[in-house]
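Translate structure to sequence.
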């Protein structure tokens, strides 16, 4: 029986309860899938996984038809000067004040039209009454719901007026010339440009720089890391521009931002934007002369415990690896690994109908990408001297 037919036949086994015993199921570790004699977590009922299983299996089957259809890299219309700066905000008013002061100063040095938008979600508008008086030039958007990173960005870019948008986390501050420097790197073939990141605590080991790298382990799981820049003036290529310290082409960001927000509340979504851009024929750059300062995880730490942050990161690591074609395990094997190697909360979150629809669309989108077979190991070798 062909593999695709075996995969679809497996869906009926999920519904009826027939499956390999848990003692044979592989479990998940931080670096990839490994064999385990016993499951790490109590699995949810098999029927919960039917939609996700069918999304993976059907997506791969449909995607197999796309190589027969020609797909050419796109070109965008010329962009116009001007920058929209968007700050997603969730109940960190003291940090936001510092971010807005630095953003206002940096925008004034830009030498172009600009707008400053703050998307407040999951917090009372009354909390920001002093900010609204102090920063009258800001456009304030409020949502009572927690929108997550993707949802807040989506609301902001729907209101953005300019062809380029800078996303700034509320726990980041911009150097006075940061926006002017990053704006110099704009081009028709560029999707995003990241600023260089420094921690506010200069004694802290530099885990975040803004120049991103990645690796794929033997199991097909992707890992992300930041690399120390080789100098302070060369414009370099890299996998993705961080969603809290980077300039993006607005039209492409609207396209790449999944309206179902599979990565909510945070992490890995911006990595998928960058990957989709490279595979669509656009570049992602790093501008070391544009400087921002980061109070590390100051926003996230107020919303989630360290254990929850770690769980969300690993959940989204799995989703990214699967959605973007790195994890080549069969759909049956993925479901088995998920049931026995991840917490119940993760199992519930990734088996919703929204996740299944988003997964199917992502797999099909990858198959249609003009440069889907691009050697991603080459992206960091892009090099532009000042």
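Result:
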């Amino acid at each position: 029986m062909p593999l695709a037919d075996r995969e679809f036949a497996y869906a009926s086994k999920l519904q009826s309860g027939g499956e390999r015993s848990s003692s044979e199921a592989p479990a998940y570790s931080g670096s990839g899938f490994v064999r385990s004699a016993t499951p790490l977590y109590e699995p949810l009922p098999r029927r919960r996984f039917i939609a996700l299983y069918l999304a993976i299996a059907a997506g791969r089957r449909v995607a197999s038809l796309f190589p027969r259809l020609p797909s050419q890299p796109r070109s965008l219309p010329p962009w116009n000067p001007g920058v929209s700066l968007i700050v997603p905000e969730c109940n960190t008013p003291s940090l936001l004040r510092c971010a807005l002061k630095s953003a206002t100063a940096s925008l004034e040095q830009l030498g172009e039209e600009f707008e400053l938008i703050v998307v407040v979600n999951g917090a009372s508008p009354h909390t920001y009454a002093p900010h609204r008086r102090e920063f009258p030039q800001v456009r304030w958007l409020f949502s009572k719901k927690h929108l997550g990173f993707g949802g807040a960005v989506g609301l902001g870019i729907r209101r953005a007026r300019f062809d380029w948008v800078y996303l700034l986390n509320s726990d980041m501050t911009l150097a006075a010339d940061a926006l002017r420097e990053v704006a110099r790197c704009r081009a028709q073939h560029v999707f995003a440009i990241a600023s260089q990141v420094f921690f506010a605590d200069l004694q802290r080991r530099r885990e975040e720089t803004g120049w991103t790298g990645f690796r794929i382990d033997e199991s097909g799981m992707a890992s992300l890391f930041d690399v120390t820049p080789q100098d302070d003036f060369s414009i370099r290529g890299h996998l993705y521009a961080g969603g809290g310290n980077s300039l993006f082409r607005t039209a492409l960001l609207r396209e790449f931002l999944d309206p179902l927000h599979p990565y909510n509340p945070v992490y890995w979504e911006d990595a998928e934007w960058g990957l989709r851009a490279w595979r669509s024929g656009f570049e992602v750059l790093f501008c070391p002369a544009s400087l921002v300062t980061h109070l590390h995880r100051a926003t996230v730490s107020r919303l989630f415990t360290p254990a929850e942050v770690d769980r969300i990161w690993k959940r989204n690591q799995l989703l990214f690896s699967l959605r973007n074609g790195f994890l080549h395990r069969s759909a049956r094997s993925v479901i088995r690994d998920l049931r026995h190697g991840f917490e119940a909360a993760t199992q519930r979150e990734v088996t919703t109908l929204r996740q299944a629809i988003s997964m199917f669309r992502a797999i099909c989108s990858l198959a249609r990408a003009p440069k889907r077979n691009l050697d991603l190991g080459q992206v960091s070798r892009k090099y532009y001297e000042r």
